[in-house]
Amino acid sequence: MAVPSGPKGTRDFYPQIMAIQQHIFDSWTKTSRKYGFEQFEGPMFEHLDVYRKKSGDEIEKQLYAFKDKAEREIALRPELTPTLARMVAAKGTTLKKPLRWFSIPRLFRYEKMQKGRLREFFQLNMDIIGIEEVSADAELIAAAIDMMKDLGLTADDFKVRISNRTLLEELFEHYGLPREDHQKLYALLDKKHKVPPENYDAEMEKIIPDTDTRHNIKNIFSMNSLEKISNCCGKQLDSIENLQHLFDLLTSYGFDDYVVFDIGVVRGLAYYTGIVFELFDANKSMRAIAGGGRYDNLIKLYGGPPTPAVGFAAGDVVLAELLKEKSLMPPDPPRSDLFIITSDDVAYDQRIATARQLREKGIRCEFALKEKMNMTKQLKAANAAGVRYALFLGKEENEQGKVRVKDMRTGSEELLDVENFGSQMVKLLDRCCSER
Amino acid sequence: MAVPSGPKGTRDFYPQIMAIQQHIFDSWTKTSRKYGFEQFEGPMFEHLDVYRKKSGDEIEKQLYAFKDKAEREIALRPELTPTLARMVAAKGTTLKKPLRWFSIPRLFRYEKMQKGRLREFFQLNMDIIGIEEVSADAELIAAAIDMMKDLGLTADDFKVRISNRTLLEELFEHYGLPREDHQKLYALLDKKHKVPPENYDAEMEKIIPDTDTRHNIKNIFSMNSLEKISNCCGKQLDSIENLQHLFDLLTSYGFDDYVVFDIGVVRGLAYYTGIVFELFDANKSMRAIAGGGRYDNLIKLYGGPPTPAVGFAAGDVVLAELLKEKSLMPPDPPRSDLFIITSDDVAYDQRIATARQLREKGIRCEFALKEKMNMTKQLKAANAAGVRYALFLGKEENEQGKVRVKDMRTGSEELLDVENFGSQMVKLLDRCCSER
User: How far, in Å, CA of B89 to CA of B100, rounded?
Assistant: First the structure.
């Protein structure tokens, strides 16, 4: 009979693969906590309307949506932000702001599978709720950078590309582009690096027939500094000041090498209201690893009080690819610290009693569960389990009041007193961990 | 506008509730690792057939089942064991046995909501794959007990009730009950404590019309020790020997106070092949907290090689109720270790620079994100955040090369040298943790 396979776009996390996931989750948790963020979670699915509210009917095409047995329309969550907005809105003004909340949700999107995209994936979400100043955006971008640094990545490996949704609006208005044409231009800008330059130019001409206006706006789009844009349009724009202050703050965080201004970052979605940013590998050869920005209207949209908010989400799939490329994946961790081996003249009970002592001290240990097994086979089992140490209990050592410990990596052995070998093992393991 | 609510039978995990969940998850992970178990995970949904294979078409009624956009029948997972069996079967003989695997899956059942039952819940799953001896059952039951002990529960709070699926079979055969009547009797036995005694007796008479046979079997069912059953039926049964050895091994683990023989534990499902057990609160006033047993045929059923296996699952909902009843819930943890407060004559940058230094040392810290905020308001924000310490940066202290630290619990203050206050804070926090 054929073994059934898992659903398309999902992953089976065997222990070695799970260890890599866990390494990423641990790092995400550690960074979030360092920044004073508290963990929250929501249901794995929501009423479909919760997603329609934020993204319109279009979203349904990308969702796992279904009716439950009571004919309620339900969807597996494609992102956590609607749940966050719903939860914050539900508490009205009773939650003490600002909130610093993080979560590591499992998410689902029914979409065409491509490199870096799966139908089931994980994210880190971090959000600061209740602060309208750009200092919150800075704190959040700093956390995103620290998240990458904690995994061993440097300023040579990734950059946060930052813009401001209102900057384009202000520029378009300054150059007299009619408001009804803004959306078309956003769309074009969003695909700048995805279409050939000649097509880009042709489309631009269609949207902005006037040569001078087109020249001015095209010129602006090619600029890679706030100063140039400011000089060019001849007046100080609020959004530029806002961005400049953000970059100054990020310099205070020590992160000037990690951030760049990029007018091309648009974050298509309608719900962003200010600063937007995307985190890419340095060459921009992969999809975005993280993205976020300010969304000051969303909690109100879900029936809550007007509440400023800023947040980002980082995905696990592209991040794991980058870690692999940079050889920053963790080495296979040993399943246990220690494997207990007994000689034929020692009762099986002794394995249990020894494990009890060690486990009470928090040492991860195991032993062969077949009661009658010779020492050679037990040692083979210890090797298969990939443990760090083997502990031998023989009649001879027993009579001397000793146990023998073998370092499976170096092969070196030492004798420990039977009376306090638990504590001695804790010391050995500490030493072994600090050597890594 | 009304705030939308989450779907029926699901939970919103606000940070305080999430902290309790995380406390349980951390304990589950710690115990599993102590026993040398490796973590694995599977997809959140499977092809519906994966569940039909194990439990028949009936199971569909209790599932969130739906068709995806390619008309594939999909179901949110109601348990992890089918996924485990599929994953182990898929690797054939290439996985080195025995496996010690654990997982903390999120699961979904579409069922009537009752106390202790939700439509979305979490479990700890632990399985040992590849050992047919009862020593594996003992190791697993020991782990289940240690899981409870690690959360602060004692032998006065809970018991593991153990039986053997083949024991009933052997007894029925011994007393000459026809094989076709066995299943009816299993069903009756499973609901012994749920129906009035007179109904129980009446049903018993229907299934076993012969007075002597009925008397013998009823007598057996009332026995609470293996010895009595053995004496009564007048011969040594394999299943009793198997159980007796299991209890001996659990005594070696030091857990004789935690386990009882209970012939009433049946675990209705067809897939169990030997030892079965259920973990209840001591008074059996709640639903089972954990249940499991041996399932030696399941991996073969999924197309893998014949592979003995034993496992258990513990749910989060009833466990949390018991912890609450026993006042063993963790206290609200502080969101951060420290809140940085600056006086009006110190620049906002100083908050950032100080946070950088502390976060680099792994200290969880935050500060007011409103740049212009007076000290009184900052202190209020520190109180609202529920931090352990407040760190004051004032011009006066600055000139003396000092920072002032206030213990928010006791109100006591001390001055630290500005040069190495990070390390001094680490020491203060260590002391504060060990005082808890």
Answer: 15
* pLDDT by residue, tens only, chain A of 436 residues: 688 899 999 999 999 999 999 999 999 999 999 999 999 999 999 999 999 887 777 778 889 999 988 899 999 999 999 999 999 999 989 999 999 999 999 999 997 777 778 999 999 999 999 999 999 999 999 999 999 999 999 999 999 999 998 898 888 888 888 888 887 887 787 777 778 888 988 998 999 999 988 888 888 888 889 988 888 877 788 899 999 999 999 999 999 999 999 988 887 666 789 999 999 999 999 999 999 999 999 999 999 999 999 999 999 999 999 999 999 998 877 788 999 999 999 999 999 999 999 999 999 999 999 999 999 999 999 999 889 999 999 988 888 889 999 999 999 999 999 888 888 888 888 876 554 3
What is the distance between the alpha carbons of residues B31 and B29, in angstroms, rounded to a whole number? 6
Instruction: Determine contact, residues A388/A373, Cβ cutoff 8 Å.
Output: no
Fold topology of B338-435: Rossmann fold (3.40.50)
| Contact yes or no for A251/B352 (Cβ under 8 A) | no
Domain ranges of chain B: 15-42+80-325, 338-435
Determine the distance in angstroms separating the CA of B400 from the nearest CA of chain A, rounded to an integer: 23
Interface test mutation site (partner B, options A5, A8, A11, A12, max chain B beta carbons within 10 A): A12
Name the residue facing B120 among A44, A133, A138 (closest C-beta). A44
* CATH of span B15-42+80-325: 3.30.930.10
- A103 DSSP β-pair partners: A125
Q: Taking residues B378-398, what's their average pLDDT?
A: 91
CB < 8 Å to B15, chain A:
38-40, 101
* Token output for B229: 């059953």
Residue in the structure block whose two tokens are 């079967």: B89
Distant-in-sequence, close-in-space partners of A245: CB < 8 Å, separation ≥ 6 = A134
Q: Is A171 exposed, middle or buried (0-12, 13-18, 19+ CB in 10 A)?
A: buried
Q: Is the dihedral of CA A167, A173, A176, A178 positive or negative?
A: positive
Instruction: Quote the strand ranges of A31-180, DSSP E.
Output: 38-39, 45-47, 65-67, 73-76, 99-103, 106-108, 120-129, 158-164
Which candidate in A120, A127, A252, A301 is best for mutational testing of the B interface (most B CBs within 10 A)? A252
For residues A352 and B135, what is the distance between their CA atoms, to the nearest angstrom? 10
Least CB–CB distance from B359: residue in A34, A86, A91:
A34
> In A298-332, which positions are buried (b, 16+ CB within 10 angstroms) versus exposed (e)?
bbeebbbeebbbbbbbbbbbbbbbbbeebeebeee
- Asked if residue A39 lies in contact with residue B74, where contact means CB atoms within 8 angstroms, the answer is no
- The pLDDT value recorded for residue B435 is 47
User: Does A131 contact B302 at a Cβ distance shorter than 8 Å?
Assistant: no
Give mean pLDDT, residues B354-366.
Answer: 93
Determine whether the interchain pair A359/B34 forms a contact, defined as Cβ–Cβ distance below 8 Å.
yes
The pLDDT of residue A436: 39
Q: Three-class SS of residue A123? A: strand
Q: Which of B29, B44, B72 to mutate to test the interface with A (most CBs of A within 10 A)?
A: B44
Q: Do B363 and A34 touch (CB under 8 A)?
A: yes
Please state whether beta strands A413-417 and A259-261 pair in parallel, antiparallel, or not at all (unpaired): unpaired
B139-171 burial: b if 16+ Cβ within 10 Å, else e: bbbbbbbbbbbebebeeebbbbbbbbbbbbbbb
Please answer yes or no on whether B146 and A36 come within 8 Å at the CB atom. Answer: no
CA atoms within 13 A on the CB side of B81: 28
CB-CB contact of B134 with B249 (8 Å): yes
| Phi/psi at B310 (5° precision) | -145, 140
Spatial neighbors of A51 by CB under 8 A, at least 6 apart, are: A59, A60, A63, A75, A78, A82
